[in-house]
Amino acid sequence: MSQKQMKKILVTGAVGQIGSELTMELRKRYGNDNVLATGRKTKPSETLLNSGPFEFIDITNRETIEKVVDDYDIDTIYNMAAILSAVGEERPKVCWNVNINGMYNILEIVHEREMARVFVPSSIAAFGPETPRENTPQETVLKPKTMYGVTKVAGELLGDYYFKRFNLDIRGVRYPGIISSETLPGGGTTDYAVEIFYEAIKHKRYTCFVKEDTVLPMMYMPDCIKGTIDLMEADIKKLKHHSDFNLASMSFSAGELAAEIKKHIPEFKCSYKPDFRQAIADSWPKSIDDSAARKEWGWKPTYDLPTATKDMLEKLGKRYEEGNL
Ligand code: SER
């Protein structure tokens, strides 16, 4: 299969945690006017609005996607719009509709217009309690117990089906929890790993919704963005996997994260009050084997817990001093 050029990019979910930073990096690389940011409802930031085109669409409504794809002559889509695990348990129907029917609309549009490429994210939520939890292999049991996980597994299978059946150039990774300083995550189980930083800076205390010894795989946003774009720019001839690359960076417990923050903010106190998200966290891996991504497209993360923590606290601390947090 030959690789088409990516010239005009559409990002769905561009107001979200990953989408907002991904859009800015894509605009830097491909030119501001060549990257269309889209959201459904949430008001985009000034940064997003002032740096390039923005439109409101709803991926569950096919016509709204088709209109912007045709108006902007789009040849590549990063489908970052999704309902995450915690909200997905509260609203399973909406989760299925957005993550599956929305994705299906995207794949059909990419297929019909013979577009160059599409990125569809999966997650560590594709795994479940029957999956080996340490160094989780690339090929393993996929029996998630959340609706979010069910949509991620179905999405991976659908993606690989479109690749084999229609030659559609689809790529995707199983993201771990993503730590970020620009946009808050929206309703996931790993959100504590972001909230803790904001609360440590603002109030010097945080009540964590998972237990102190809960270990999950995590990644700092700069690595997430780099990995996402690197995979999309990789040579397709080298890829044996498509929609489901394991991707790892660091793994730590909630208590280890709190201890790392305490090194910078000694007064910081973290307490633990697990809620329904504990069961979700307990069904996910602790660490991930990402050797396929390393081998097939050269994946290599940069940040670890100490360097990510330092950077997060510097960035958020600056915003706090400016009155912008
Ligand atoms: N961060 C996501 C969640 O917690 C995992 O993909 O739902």
Quick description:
With 325 residues, the protein is α/β, with parallel strands linked by helices. It is 44% helix and 15% strand. It has 12 helices and 14 strands.
Question: What does this molecule look like?
Answer:
- It is built from twelve helices and 14 strands.
- By secondary structure, the protein is of the alpha/beta class.
- The protein has two domains: 9-177 and 220-246, Rossmann fold; 179-218 and 250-286 and 302-321, Alpha-Beta Complex (UDP-galactose 4-epimerase, domain 1), CATH 3.90.25.10.
- Strands 3-2-1-4-5-7 form a six-stranded parallel sheet, sandwiched between helices.
- Helix 1 links the parallel strand 1 (9-12) and strand 2.
- It is globular, with a radius of gyration of 19 Å.
- It starts with 8 loop residues before the first strand and ends with a helix.
- The protein binds serine.
- Serine (SER) binds next to loops.
Label the structural class. Answer: alpha/beta
Give helix and strand order, one letter per element, not per position.
EHEHEHEHHEEHEEEHEEHEEHEHHH
Average pLDDT taken over every residue:
97
- Could you tell me which ligands this complex binds, including any ions or cofactors? serine
Query: What is the CATH architecture assignment of the largest domain?
Result: 3-Layer(aba) Sandwich
Question: Largest sheet, order of strands side by side?
Answer: 3-2-1-4-5-7
Please estimate the helix content: 40-55%
Task: Give the CATH topology of the largest domain.
Answer: Rossmann fold
General form: globular
Instruction: Using the coordinates above, name the CATH class of the largest domain.
Output: Alpha Beta
How many extended strands?
14
What count of structural domains?
A: 2
Count of runs of 4 or more consecutive helical residues: 12
Rounded to the nearest angstrom, the distance between the terminal CA atoms is 47 Å
Contiguous uncertain segments of 5+ residues: none
